[in-house]
Design goal:
Strand content: 25-35%
Structural class: alpha+beta
Largest sheet: 10 strands, mixed
Low-confidence stretches: none
Number of strands: 14
Mean pLDDT: 89
Oligomer: single chain
Radius of gyration: 20 Å
Strand order of the largest sheet: 2-1-3-4-9-10-12-11-13-14
Helix content: 10-25%
């Protein structure tokens, strides 16, 4: 990870090269990825068709996204930090520096957990502080997640009693901030089709569906219009345009998921500017 936030690190995986090729350009430049590629092309004399994957530390601008879609059609594209709105760069840089300053992830963190009301465990929700995401269908509770002495990951749900003992703090604000830390958007393009995989090293990537700014972040990749979101398990999320040719594939993947139901039943949702709608759940 590049310590100088004013410079955007761009990494290219190129056919015929054993190691990835690195370049950089000013982070705020609208053509940062294009500038980085020009440097690589001049240095190595390679063609755009040889690029297999592109990682940009900062989310590419709309101009760079068009450039990449035109020249790196088959390349997988990923990034770590969301590109802020104009005038928000200093805030974004400060947040990025804070992330970079962390030598390792916290041993325990408070995270949001999705609960389907059709889950066999849904009765336990009455004992937990929770918020509706899709009223009557999908809720968000909160849990402390961290490693156990046995080398596994443990999850301890925050109960209403514990919440009251703590003075009823704002669990959602802390949990969403923890979730966003380490969240990554992997973008795959094939012609006009776009698939975004939302992943997180420390589990519960599917809970990102509850983030208030998720549609705004994803719309930078898809443009305006409703999105179809597949949650085959609590740790995976796949997003396509609802009118995409990939929509049925995502739907089938979710409804045939082998995940053993706990809190979340594998679900297909619509994400729109107005909120989230549950479209289908796997039989369980």
């Amino acid at each position: 990870m590049n310590d100088d936030v004013s410079q955007n690190l761009v990494v290219f995986r190129i056919k015929g090269f054993d190691e990835p090729v690195l370049a950089s350009a000013p982070t705020q430049a609208e053509d940062a990825v294009e500038q980085a590629w020009a440097s690589v092309r001049q240095q190595h004399g390679v063609r755009t068709s040889a690029v297999r994957a592109v990682y940009s530390e900062w989310q590419p601008s709309p101009a760079d996204q068009k450039f990449m879609a035109r020249h790196f059609r088959k390349a997988e594209c990923t990034y770590s930090f969301a590109r802020p709105a104009p005038g928000e760069w200093e805030r974004a840089f400060a947040e990025a520096r804070a992330v970079m300053a962390e030598t390792r992830p916290p041993s325990e963190e408070l995270l949001p957990v999705l609960w389907s009301t059709s889950s066999p465990r849904a009765g336990l929700l009455d004992t937990l502080p929770h918020q509706p995401l899709v009223p009557g269908r999908l809720s968000v509770a909160f849990a402390v997640v961290g490693p156990t002495p046995h080398g596994t990951i443990g999850m301890h749900h925050v109960t209403r009693h514990q919440h009251e003992e703590m003075g009823a703090p704002d669990l959602a604000g802390v949990a969403y901030q923890s979730l966003a830390r380490g969240l990554r958007f992997d973008v795959s393009r094939s012609g006009s089709e776009v698939l975004v995989s939302v992943v997180r090293e420390n589990l519960l990537a599917a809970s990102a569906i509850a983030l208030p700014d998720l549609y705004a972040q994803l719309s930078q990749q898809f443009g305006p219009g409703d999105l179809l979101v597949g949650l085959p398990c609590p740790d995976e999320m796949y997003v396509v345009r609802e009118d995409s040719g990939l929509a049925e594939q995502v739907r089938e993947q979710v409804l045939s998921s082998p995940y053993e139901t706990t809190e979340l039943v594998p679900s297909v949702l619509r994400l729109a500017p107005g909120g989230v709608e549950l479209l289908a759940e796997r039989d369980h």
